[in-house]
């Protein structure tokens, strides 16, 4: 059974910022974000391709909808946390998608790491229906549990007045000090791709440095400790603890395949704007090799296995010396 009812911008009786919010996509990062929205007091309607993914949310007070269109009919603001451009397009503009149920004046917030060109395309389609579109991808800048604590970094693009309207919802998932208006529609998606390109490239460069040092005879723990204390210090170095323990289980939403998608989108953007990106292209090919090797389902740190295979060393504890 679907949901029924029509929302209003704010709950006047409550005298606060309680909104009718839809949330589509309850994966490893979507679910904790949706729980934060529920816990912030917003009336929340949820949907996922797997109803089982919504169990915790329904127990917390959310309402289930059978389709994205039904979510949109019940809500003023719909948030989508989806894998990539094709999934976003299908949810927004596909059969029984958001636009089949959204009323004029409602807002779609795209939380995905998306292509700026897809964002602008969907923004134009939504505008024809009187629906606002905000791209607002997120990053775990303040810690691996940022999504659970509702303190994500938010990179928003779109109309500033619309952004102000939905700020109570964004503040449910993001640190108010880390919600940035990056510019017009598509700017948030652009900043997110640039951010992730640096993050994934850094991780790959660290892998190369560690395999060089290890194969040159330095103990792995010594190498990592000194690098962390020197100018090579990086937030990516602590993530290597899992590599040293040979633990490649996914942590949160970080999978090799999703990281590969991010780097691919960044290199495609570079081509679109005629910017040479030699390093990005090399990292992109490393991710292509990783997915081809069948490790796309592993946690993002498993990308080191491509470098280990090429260098013929293993970055495990006790190695080197």
How would you characterize this protein structure?
By secondary structure, this protein is of the alpha/beta class. It folds into two domains: 20-184, Rossmann fold; 191-311, Orthogonal Bundle (N-(1-d-carboxylethyl)-l-norvaline Dehydrogenase, domain 2). Helices cover 45% and strands 13% of the residues. It contains 14 helices and nine strands. Strands 3-2-1-4-5-6 form a six-stranded parallel beta sheet, sandwiched between helices. A three-stranded mixed beta sheet has the order 7-8-9. Strand 4 (77-80), helix 4 (85-93) and strand 5 (107-110) form a beta-alpha-beta unit. The longest helix has 29 residues, at 187-215. It is elongated, with a radius of gyration of 21 Å. It starts with 19 loop residues before the first strand and ends in a 10-residue tail after the last helix. 46% of the residues are buried. Residues 1-15 have low confidence and may be disordered.
């Amino acid at each position: 059974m679907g949901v029924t009812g029509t929302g209003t911008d704010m709950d006047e009786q409550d005298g606060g910022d309680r909104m009718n919010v839809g949330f589509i996509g309850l994966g490893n990062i979507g679910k904790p974000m949706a729980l934060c929205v529920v816990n912030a007091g917003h009336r929340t309607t949820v949907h996922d391709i797997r109803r089982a993914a919504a169990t915790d949310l329904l127990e917390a007070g959310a309402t289930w909808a059978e389709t994205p269109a039904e979510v949109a009919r019940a809500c003023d603001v719909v948030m989508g946390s989806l894998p990539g451009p094709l999934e976003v397009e299908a949810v927004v503009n596909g059969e029984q998608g958001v636009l089949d149920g959204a009323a004029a004046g409602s807002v779609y917030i795209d939380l995905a790491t998306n292509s700026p060109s897809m964002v602008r395309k969907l923004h134009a389609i939504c505008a024809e229906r009187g629906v606002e579109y905000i791209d607002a991808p997120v990053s775990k800048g303040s810690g691996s549990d940022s999504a659970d604590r509702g303190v994500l970094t938010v990179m928003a693009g779109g109309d500033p007045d619309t952004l102000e309207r939905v700020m109570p919802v964004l503040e449910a998932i993001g640190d108010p000090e880390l919600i940035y208006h990056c510019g017009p529609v598509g700017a948030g998606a652009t900043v997110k791709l640039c951010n992730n390109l640096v993050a994934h490239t850094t991780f790959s460069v660290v892998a190369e440095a560690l395999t060089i040092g290890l194969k040159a005879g330095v103990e792995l723990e010594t190498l990592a400790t000194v690098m962390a204390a020197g100018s090579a210090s990086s937030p990516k170095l602590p993530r290597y603890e899992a590599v040293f323990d040979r633990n490649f289980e996914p942590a949160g939403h970080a999978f090799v395949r999703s990281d590969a998608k991010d780097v691919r989108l960044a290199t495609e953007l570079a081509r679109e704007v005629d910017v040479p990106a030699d390093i990005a292209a090399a990292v992109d090919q490393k991710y292509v090799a990783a997915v081809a090797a069948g490790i796309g389902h592993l946690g993002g740190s498993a990308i080191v296995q491509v470098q280990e295979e090429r260098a013929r060393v293993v970055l495990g504890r006790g190695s080197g010396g």
